[in-house]
Write a structure and sequence with these properties.
It is a single chain. By secondary structure, this protein is an alpha+beta fold. The chain has 3 domains: about 5-35; about 45-130, no CATH class; about 155-305, NADH Oxidase (3-Layer(aba) Sandwich), CATH 3.40.109.10. It contains 13 helices and 4 strands. It has helices at about 5-10, 15-35, 45-60, 70-85, 95-115, 120-130, 145-155, 160-165, 180-190, 210-215, 250-265, 280-290, 320-325, and strands spanning about 200-205, 230-235, 270-275, 295-305. Strands 1-2-4-3 form a 4-stranded antiparallel beta sheet, sandwiched between helices. The longest helix is centred in the first third of the chain and has 24 residues, at about 15-35. The radius of gyration is 24 Å and the shape is globular. About 30% of the residues are buried.
Length: about 325
């Protein structure tokens, strides 16, 4: 028996080794968060996410049932950040900047509709906007949706649709069409997002060599016909996180986004299967480098996908009774 194997047999050693591994991985999580979250350093990406955060806050004010004057400090902060954002160049072509401009435009209209023009905040925003008449229009603010419209648009057998989707592990040999994938992402981007910051990203790994590195790295690909897999990687950007209480926000947002993405793919005749990414920090860093994923992003989900075959073998995967997971408190 070699020395390493002998040491592992000593009582308590395995536990200490496990604790050491846990500490290393949690330290990596902490390091990524601290080095990239909103207040770590000033970058264009962080300012953009902060602008979206304030924009959403202003939208909530405009959606108030009993409106009053609001946004005095928030509009000042938004205009300040927009000026900082412009220092990086080409702001007028960026989504975050266009969204912020239109939030201020809606703010002005909101004040005008209530006769609040004789206020400092109105005058300051109005003066600021006079320099940005060239910025494209975007629907920002709040609007009314009739109950009849909500009911009409929701009249689908949603349970039947969800029950029709299964995880599949064998696909058609046809490669995933770029346009079909874009359609699915277009649908998935409607997913709820923390303060509308939209921190999730998707990567369709078409390069066969790179796709193999993903398949080799992730868990759960046993039993797949690997030559037919179209690999999708979903990440979230830690630049979007605002404070320590949001340390798990990215995983939550990625879960919402990914579930809507696979349902969207199903609606287009494309099968999917979630594959766990429970890898070490070293493996994640190597994979991000290989795929060209920025350091600030975390790999959250890997999805195997492909067009359905004429006949697809799926697992029954029975669900727990409702009574086991439902409680009134």
């Amino acid at each position: 028996m070699n020395l390493k194997a002998y040491i592992k047999r000593i009582p308590g050693i395995n536990k200490l080794c496990t604790i050491r591994r846990f500490n290393r991985e949690y330290s990596y999580d902490q390091s990524i968060f601290i080095n990239n979250y909103s207040h770590s350093k000033k970058t264009k990406q962080k300012i953009g996410y902060n602008m979206l955060l304030i924009t959403h806050s202003l939208e909530k004010g405009m959606g108030s049932k009993n409106p009053r004057r609001f946004g005095v400090s928030k509009t000042k902060e938004l205009m300040k950040q927009m000026c900082e954002y412009e220092e990086y160049g080409q702001a007028d072509k960026d989504y975050a900047f266009i969204c912020a401009i239109n939030a201020l435009r809606s703010y002005i209209k909101f004040y005008e509709a209530r006769g609040w023009e004789d206020t400092d905040e109105y005058r300051e925003v109005k003066k600021f906007l006079s320099n940005y008449s060239n910025i494209a229009e975007m629907n920002v603010g709040s609007f009314i949706v009739e109950k009849s419209v909500l009911e009409a648009d929701s009249k689908i057998d949603y349970k039947k649709f969800l029950a029709s989707r299964h995880s599949v592990r064998e696909f058609s040999t046809k490669k995933l069409c770029d346009e079909d994938f874009k359609k699915a992402v277009d649908i998935a981007r409607l997913s709820p997002s923390a303060c509308n910051r939209q921190m999730c990203k998707t990567y369709y790994v078409k390069n066969a060599k790179k796709a193999k590195t993903v398949i080799d790295a992730a868990q759960g690909f046993g039993g797949f016909e690997k030559d037919t897999i179209n690999v999708i990687v979903v990440t979230f950007d830690t630049n979007a996180n605002y404070f320590v209480g949001e340390r798990n926000q990215g995983w939550f947002n990625a879960g919402l986004f990914s579930m809507n993405l696979v349902n969207a793919l199903h609606s287009l005749g494309i099968g999917t299967c979630f594959c766990q990414f429970g890898n070490t920090s070293k493996e994640e860093e190597d994979l991000k480098k290989n795929l060209g994923i920025p350091e600030s992003e975390r790999i959250a989900v890997i999805i195997a996908s492909g067009y359905y075959r004429e006949k697809n073998t799926v697992l029954a995967s029975p669900r727990k009774p409702v009574e086991d997971i439902f409680r009134i408190v």
